[in-house]
Predict the 3D structure of the following.
Amino acid sequence: MKILIVSFDKNLTKQLKKVLEDHEVIDVRNGEEALNLTSQDFDVIIYDAISGAISEEDINNMYEQRFKDAKFIVLVDDLFPVNEKNLKPDKKLLITREHAVNKILDAIEKPLEESTEMLLPLLPELEIERHTLIEEGPSPLPEQWLNQ
């Protein structure tokens, strides 16, 4: 399987590449670099959406311009949420960043319907709110920010 990782997080990319060593993996830092690649036949795009709404625009540009047939796996973070409803790719799956390395093989190798059923229940206490995955529990923000 040919996989494109879009992330500026070198550590995350290194971990994902290790887990995906049986696949052909190419990595780039952003959507612009992805669009400039000469090869466009990727089965899966793993997109690290750490930039929230900016990531939504980037994913949509990649989908519209070059990668309509790829399955998009979007790594999300509750600090900078992504609204799934704003994402144009039909074949997409959102996974929390913190679980990406452990769940990525299941996400890419199973059909989308099976991946969704399998991955979402395994994530800790997730709920859908405005089509964005969020994790319940204490906020990762400092206490003084929450009381302002």
In short: The helical segments are 10-19, 31-35, 53-65, 100-109, 112-119, 143-146. Residues 117-134 have pLDDT under 50 and may be disordered. The beta strands are 2-6, 24-28, 44-48, 71-76, 92-96, 126-129, 132-135. The chain has one domain: 2-146.
